[in-house]
Structure prediction request, 462 residues.
Amino acid sequence: MKQKAWSGRFKEATDKLVEELNASISFDKRLYSHDITGSIAHAMVLVKAGILTEKEGKKIINGLKAVEKEIAEGKIEFTAEMEDIHMAVESRLTEKIGPLGGKLHTGRSRNDQVAVDIRLFLKDQIFEILHLLHHFRQALVDVAEENLEVIMPGYTHMQRAQPVLLSHHMLAYYEMFVRDTSRLIDCLDRMDEMPLGAGALAGSPYNLDRNYAAELLGFSRVTENSLDSVSDRDFIIEFLSAASIMMMHISRLSEEIILWSSQEFGFIELSDAFSTGSSIMPQKKNPDIAELARGKSGRVYGNLVSLLTTMKSLPLAYNKDMQEDKEPLFDTIDTIKALLKVYGPMLKTMKVNRDRMLRATEAGFLNATDAADYLASRGVPFRQAHEVAGRAVAYCIEKGKTLEGLGLDEWKSLSPVFEKDIKEAVSIKRSLNTRKVYGGTALETVKKRLKAVKKEMSGGCC
Ligand code: ARG
Prediction:
């Protein structure tokens, strides 16, 4: 059996069960290329410090590149015996280039090594996610543009409230995902610190040029405190919380997609390619993707809570508990990437049932506020105007009428302030188009916002 890198002080071999439990290789193998990138930079720093000769440095770096190739080609079978990706890479390197491989770990610990690996990995992942988010936002913009003038009921308390444009509704989500984007960018900025040189916890006794390592690895600065460098996982937690907020937004949109595609609403129909059927009920066409997105938000929140809980009582500095940071992180990344990839195409292929949406605005007195505003803009105190409009609604309910269908005499009997133009004032289109305030749902306003949004989008993903 192979000797462990840390076996010097041990007399007995590790128990097999301990080995299994202790190992992280089954999941942290995913960090291999970032681990090797970090190691190459560390080797260059060691050369600069005079700890390795140029020749040794070259040999180590070439060896590392060869190991990376082997792993990429699936030639290395990872086993629990290897413990983690850091040990696996180092031991394969030593197999290839001999005892010189053992010099690579000079001035370094797995504690600062893993801290740099995850940062490098997560930075790359966030860029990928930002890119996917950009496409997803584009899909929202496209749906808004294609359905610019489609009118639908806007809801409060899940009750029909006032008419809005579907494009306005879609752009509401666009705004949420813009904030999600900026949260991820903030998160990138805070994690942009290079921890190598912190060693196990107290810093390195070697003359390591940490700024050189930062430059080689594309970090804009080095970490300030060695203890913090190896024990900080708040950059992962911050990412998980940004991801959770984003999932909450995806989940809210999903809830609407699910409702809108129900027979009760009938506002949209998802394309067959993005729906699934039932194994027993032949008539069913289910919005499974939206349901899964809603369901997976729970899983991502769980990942956030899992790592917060892992970290909350850990004394400084590194503790093995922190090995538990990776699975929630990887799972979150995989979940949001898979969803973001499918969600835009699902939205873009859905069929919008314009008539049904419009008809839904015609029942439910969505223009009652407009009747009140009509009076208020003619000097009636809003509270009183609200009361009169309420009586108008009650009257319509009793008579089985709509506000648009009332005659002037009926309006007059409710308030003498009503004139002929009340009919126009309570038309759904007008109700909508009077909401010209900045950020409102009037067609003119939404058109302007859409134009600005398209300009924003042309600026790229981040
Ligand atoms: N596999 C470990 C982790 O992910 C690497 C760091 C181990 N450090 C140590 N001192 N045992 O946390």
